[in-house]
Every structure is written in structure tokens, then in C-alpha cells.
Amino acid sequence: TNTPTNSYHNIDPDNKSSVHQRLVVRYLAVYFMASLADWLQGPYVYALYATYGYPQRDIARLFCAGFAASMILGTVVGQFADAGGRRRFVVLY
User: What is the C-alpha to C-alpha distance for residues 89 and 93, in angstroms, rounded to an integer?
Assistant: First the structure.
């Protein structure tokens, strides 16, 4: 077969949980840093819109529209990923 020798499936069963735990911790650390970076950009985007002359009411509408689009598209794309394979959609992303 073409399975790599360092494949997760070839790891000793007693060691799988520690490998999995390290992967989870590494993933969550990167995920939280990316989420924090995304969260920190909000005030700068607001200031950018303000420098372009948008009134506060329009900026609020833009933020709401962005969050609504993310909510709707995230749900739809999530269903496609469940049906078509999550790995495929992660690679596409």
C-alpha cells in the first residue's frame, strides 16, 4: 500500500490519545490566535469606513450585513462540506 510509515494508523494504540491531544492543543492554539486577529481588526475596519465618509448608521448596516452573510453562507457551505467531505472542502478553502 501507499500508506506512509508515520501514519496515524500505524501508531501504537496506547500512544494515539497523546498524539491526538497534542494535535488538538496545537489546532486550538492556532485557531484562537486567528480568531483574536480577526476580532482585533473590527475597530480598524470601522475607522476605515469612517475615513471614507460613511455615516455611523451605514457602517452599522455594513457590519450587520457581513455577519448575516457569514451566518447564512457558513451554514450552507457547512452542509455541502458534510455531504461532499470535510477534507475536500478544507483543501478548497
Answer: 6
Q: How far is CA 49 from CA 11, 38, 45, 52, 92, in A?
A: 52, 17, 6, 5, 31
Model confidence at 60: pLDDT above 90: yes
| 45-54: pLDDT as tens digits | 889 999 999 9
CA distance 11 to 66: 44
Q: Is 83 helix (H, G, I), strand (E, B) or coil?
A: helix
Nine-digit cell at 2?
501507499
Measured between its terminal Cα atoms, the distance across the chain in Å is: 29
